[in-house]
Amino acid sequence: MYMEIIGIDLGGTNLRAGVVRDGVLQPVVSRPLKARGSRLEVTEQIFGIIDEMIDDDTTAIGIGVPGLVDPVSRILYDVVNIPAINETDLRGILEQRYRLPVKIENDANCFALGEYHFGVAQPYRSVVGLTIGTGLGAGIINNGRLLAGKHGGAGEFGMISYLDKNMEYYVSGRFFEHVYKTQGEIVYRRAVEGDIEASYMYDDFGRHLGEAIKLVLYVLDTECIVIGGALKAAFSFYARSMWETVRGFAFQRSVPELKIAASVLPGSNVLGAAALHLSPRTNSRVNN
Questions:
Q1: What backbone torsions phi and psi does residue 3 show, to the nearest 5 degrees?
Q2: CB burial class (10 A; 0-12, 13-18, 19+) of residue 275?
Q3: pTM
Q4: Is residue 165 classed as helix, strand or coil in its secondary structure?
Q5: Domain 123-262 superfamily per CATH
Q6: Domain-wise residue ranges, the chain
């Protein structure tokens, strides 16, 4: 069946959207987002970018948000970076305005769906997408289905206690600030130039990431882990120490068959938002 879906990635600083026609992403449009604006200002910006793209062939709208979505009430919550849309039924607002099916999901879940349908994870049925940026997010595809959890919060591995803090403290872009009192962008530039100290910092980061991946494996025994977010660009700098740590996983049979890769898919979050209409949620009791 012919499908033309508008996919939207609602970020903390930018609003990005694109039309996906039969699985092919058209050019993505990006607009600065008034993340600290009023509810009216934020929703008007969302309306504006949809109005640019919608036409008579549009069949659905999908949106990824940096927060959680209650599977039953559809209310958004814990949207830390865009407080104005907390505790709103954004889906209901959009469905009423555009008279089209709308699905909204956590942005890490959209990233995982984008990789599962269009990216490096296509050959696999069980996938975890790790988004490593300001924080650590995760989207879970289990046997071909998105695993959201009862309250929409499945995959929040970053909140699990680890060492003296939590996993996100050591496995995010802010690791370099927390541990080495420097910025990730500076470390990356130095590593590109061959700086030995920067290489050491990435080795350290890779070991912590390896521990996070072992945690994911103990819980989910997944086939494929895809790295997204700002830290994907530096994958080659920390891959070795990451794999050294992962090889210490207790169940050795799992390791040789495990795929770990950095995302190379342009617009994966936008594609994943559109793919919300291609993949059912695990919560089958909910008519999504």
A1: -130, 135
A2: buried
A3: 0.92
A4: strand
A5: ATPase, nucleotide binding domain (3.30.420.40)
A6: 4-110, 123-262
- What SS3 class is residue 17? strand
CA distance 33 to 83: 12
The pair of three-digit structure tokens given for residue 275, joined into one six-digit string: 């793919």
CATH superfamily of 4-110: ATPase, nucleotide binding domain (3.30.420.40)
Q: Kindly report the number of other CB atoms within 10 A of residue 244's CB atom.
A: 13
Residue 255 corresponds to which tokens in the numbers above? Answer: 């390791």
- The length of the chain in residues reads 288
User: Which tens digit of pLDDT belongs to each residue from 77-98?
Assistant: 999 889 999 999 999 999 999 9
Six-digit token pair at 122?
Answer: 């296509």
Asked whether the CA dihedral 57, 116, 147, 85 is positive or negative, the reply is negative
The letter for the amino acid at 261 is A
Residues 265 and 118 sit within 8 Å (Cβ to Cβ): yes
